[in-house]
Amino acid sequence: MVVKHTTAKGRKVTLKMAQKALEGRRRLDLSNLGIATFPKCLLKIAAVDELDLSRNTLQKLPEDLGDLAGLSRLDLQSNKLEALPQAMGRLVGLTHLNLSNNRLRSPPLLPDSLGLLVRLQSLNLGLNRLDRLPPSTAALTGLQNLGLFDNLFTELPAFLTAASLCETCLHRHEQERDPLKRNTRRDVRGGAEDNRKRIYSGLTTPNSVAAANQDAWRRRR
After folding, report:
1. What is the pTM of this model?
2. Basic and acidic residues bias: where (predicted)?
3. Cα gap 168→85, rounded to integer Å
4. Within 10 Å of residue 20's Cβ, how many Cβ atoms?
5. Cβ atoms within 10 A of the Cβ of 118, count?
6. What is the CATH number of domain 6-160+200-217?
7. Which H or E element spans position 147?
């Protein structure tokens, strides 16, 4: 897709352009186009399953975003987002949400409505400025990947107990908090994780969703 119109507020995406960018009428890729304002024309496109707005310059999202309730994947990595609207909680079909490499901070805290996204399997919040998560995120029991790397956490959120970590990530987290443990090695023994319900491999290191573009798109803070 070629976007011809550029303004001081970034490139403008029209409904016609967006429709041409649809892949198989299900996936809409508008990444890396210099978009600074969320294109509200997207709200007129029905049955979009995946929306990629990564690597743009978005600073905020409209409450109307919640109208895209059919989305299962939403990629907003590498923008300039500082906060999220409560309307995020209306995207109840989401299974994958990538918010890495933005400017999200606490305060303002992420919206409590995030806990309504109970179908989420992957949530990437790495490369932001967060030091806590809303308590409602404890309701996201379906998560398989949770990225919190490169934020401002001094301790893990309360609902993330040691049982939520793989042995490697737990060891790394302990090393970061206590330098005296850097020479201590944990053995990963067979059967040790049998009773763990949730294992988050992206807490302290990038998961596969963000790793490919981390070096190219990380913004200095």
Report:
1. 0.75
2. 174-197
3. 34
4. 10
5. 12
6. 3.80.10.10
7. strand 145-147
Strand 6-7 relative to strand 10-11: parallel, antiparallel, unpaired? Answer: antiparallel
Structure tokens at 126: 């790495």
SS3 of residue 217 by DSSP: helix
C-beta of residue 53 within 8 angstroms of C-beta of residue 31: yes
Distance from C-alpha of 125 to C-alpha of 137, rounded to nearest angstrom: 12
Q: Pick the range with the lowest mean pLDDT from 62-71, 104-113, 159-168, 174-183.
A: 174-183
The domain spans of the chain are: 6-160+200-217
Q: Which of 66, 86, 68 is nearest to 28 (CA)?
A: 68
Residues 197-209 have pLDDT tens digits of 455 555 655 544 4
Kindly tell me the sign of the dihedral angle through the C-alpha atoms of 172, 178, 183, 187: negative
Other CB atoms within a 10 A radius of the CB of residue 218 amount to: 15
Spatial neighbors of 152 by CB under 8 A, at least 6 apart, are 105, 129, 130, 131
In angstroms and rounded to an integer, the radius of gyration of the C-alpha atoms of the chain is 18
Spatial distance between the Cα atoms of 172 and 169, rounded to a whole number of angstroms = 5
The answer to whether residues 39 and 17 touch, using CB atoms and an 8 Å cutoff, is no
What CA–CA distance (Å, rounded) separates 129 from 150? 8
Give the contacts of 37 (CB within 8 A, at least 6 positions apart). Answer: 9, 10, 58
Q: Tens digits of per-residue pLDDT, 138-169?
A: 999 999 999 999 999 988 888 786 445 555 55
Of the CA atoms within 13 Å of residue 90, those in its CB half-sphere come to: 12
The residues with which 96 forms a beta bridge, in sequence order, are 73, 122
